[in-house]
Amino acid sequence: MDLTFSQEELAFREKVRAFFADHYPEDIRTKMNRGIRLAKEDFVRWQKILHQHGYMAVNWPVEYGGTGWTPVQKYIFATEMAEANAPDVVPFGVNMVGPVIYSFGSEELKQRFLPDILESNVWWCQGYSEPGAGSDLASLKTLAVRDGDDYIINGTKTWTTLGQHADWIFVLARTNTDVARRQEGISFILCDMNTPGITVRPIITIEGGHEVNEVHFEDVRVPVANLVGEEGRGWTYGKVLLQHERTNIAGVARSKYRLARLKELAHKAPDGGSALIDEPSFRAKLVRTEVDLKALEFTDLRTLAAISTGKAPGPESSILKIKGTEMQQQLDTLYMEAAGYYAMPFVPDQFSLDVSADDMVVDSTEPTTALRYFNYRKASIYGGSNEIQKNIIAKHVLGL
Amino acid sequence: MDFSINEDQAMLQDSVAKFIANDYDFDSRQASAATDVGFSRERWTEFAELGWTAVPFAEEDGGLDGGPVELMLMMEQFGKGLVVEPFLPCIILAGGVLKRLATSQQKAQWLAPLIDGSKLGALAYAEPQSRFDLANVATTATRDGDDFVLNGHKAVVLNGGNADTLIVVARTSGDVTDEHGISLFAIDADSDGIRRKAYPTGDARQAAEVYFDNVRVSAEQLLGDVDDGLPTLKAVITDGIIAIAAEAVGIMQTLNGKTLEYTKSRVQFGAPIASFQALQHRMVDMFVMYEQPRSLLLHAVMMQDEDNAEAAARAVAALKIQIGTEARKLGEEAVQLHGGMGVTWELDVAHYFKRLTMIDTLFGNADYHLDRYVLS
What we know:
The complex is a heterodimer.
Chain A: H1 7-23, H2 26-33, H3 40-52, H4 71-83, H5 91-104, H6 107-118, E1 124-127, E2 143-147, E3 150-157, E4 168-174, E5 186-192, E6 198-204, E7 210-223, H7 234-245, H8 252-267, H9 280-308, H10 320-339, H11 368-375, H12 386-397
Parallel strand pairs in A: 1-4
Antiparallel strand pairs in A: 2-3, 3-7, 4-5, 6-7
Chain B: H1 7-23, H2 26-33, H3 41-49, H4 68-81, H5 87-101, H6 104-115, E1 121-124, E2 140-144, E3 147-158, E4 165-171, E5 182-188, E6 194-200, E7 206-218, E8 222-223, H7 230-265, E9 267-268, E10 271-272, H8 277-303, H9 309-337, H10 348-361, H11 366-372
Helix pairs in contact in B: 1-4, 4-7, 5-6, 5-7, 7-8, 7-9, 7-10, 8-9, 9-10, 9-11
């Protein structure tokens, strides 16, 4: 057993740390630090910088332009990224559809789509959930009917994150309704968002932001050439994708960063006021959070260690999504409680970069804390709700 | 021991309940909240015409002599409707100070217009450094001849941007955290030297940062005795806690109803999700989370009439602790059981949840009261 990094790993950490210090744009950093929602252009610019340095496709194999890093290197990179408070890459292209295309797609599809994903030239979104198919994704009803060399797609996809920016969408659609199991007859199809018949309707979330959408398909004609892999095998491919979605889902590095900042905040005493750390109940919660997070970090590291020695991750990996999102939400709660009355103002606009000091309600980022707390209630719902995660653990881990 | 309400109280409850059920739909609530003032002036006038804005005041002041029971009954219904009109800041807080401290002349000038709805009020007590400590007051009111001159910054003043009248808590002597040396003033919100930054709150109410820069007020604007304002402020905040606790109970009951309804109609895996035992137990827990605070609410209300100030204060602290933890947890559960729909702006559930969250913060969150609770 050994907790320390090797000389090579330490050198790698220095290199990555220097990258974030030298190449992370100041304006994007300011937005991140002040809790300002990033624009499409910010994400694209940042991802192009990551790509220039070979840091875009952390999980891809080298042959497709990935890093080929060891799990420990990935862990170090995620930690440094969180420490710099740099934004995560938008996952839909590089972490979701990319791996499905290089794992199951034809050579033609690989050449057509992978370079643009690496270079962030094309923005992808995900067409999975439907109004009637959330936790029970296999009940999806969107139909893709074969017509010559095309499919004609009809249906509605929902919770499509950042779909308002998307150039392409990957869709799970039913190509065969005459099947024994509902999971059969589902295909994985790539679709240009500019195709006639597609409409995108914004869904405003609880805190007033626009990050998710409903996407309607009405007689949308898509070439059969856009099918990934075999017809009817989409469910299997989609499950592979969901595993990638769960990579780093614990978000430990970012939670550690946020906990450290929260502790700094709790130690500060305003003029004429007292420091929050002296409040016993708050302090107890802070300790509890640190303890839980340390446990989660080592659960995450155990999983990582298994993967790096070529073993399958053990059952402990199944709890990462549940505990990870619980930790994120616990931190959101503590930030809000730390803000006291300043958790109440609802002024998302005041955090635009050009706001004058006179127009700011308070000279801090505190008013975003409640917005974030509200928004991140989604974390225990998306990517397979935590209830579904528990069903999976009950069935596949505990054998119930 | 009697948990029943009398005939007049039942009538009041009934009239507010009917209004909420028939005339206060969610869509028009949302439309009112989205306006600059954040509520409906017409509705507020209606509240006054119905006599609701007069409920907590004495008959000789033009009121209806209502007490904590009436307050609870009304606020519970306001919670169910997610009412955005400024009953709490205007009537319970600003009105609460005036009814306790104002002379008859001061009442005629400051309180009567709040009761008849012609003017709006707000209570400016919290400050950026004070967190929830009512005695932490850095805003100063310095004697200058017959006048006082105010300087300071009041934080998150509910209804502060809309208010015509500000009831301001200021320090007339002592150090920032001294209990003695706090005084209350009634001030026209348009007075020279007052600057306000108004904004909506996360639960669709209105608040403002209020800055005082050499604001000159006359001795006639001092409410009650100089230096001795804190006990009154505490009494008013106690009313406020009972009011928002009752509001929370109304919201929790509504959220539980909506969650049961949704889970019975939402079908996944070929069955209503309400049929899954894992979710049934969650909803049973939510039922408990609602019933227990309701019991403490009744306890706190009934204790207000007992002649034991210490026990009454403990009952209110207990209520705030219970409401703070249970209501927020219940809100989170209601959202979770609604799945993605629960985190949409479109669905009322999200807005009930946001109000419950802010109710925990208002007047000191659960931790604040927990850390200061005096065991019996």
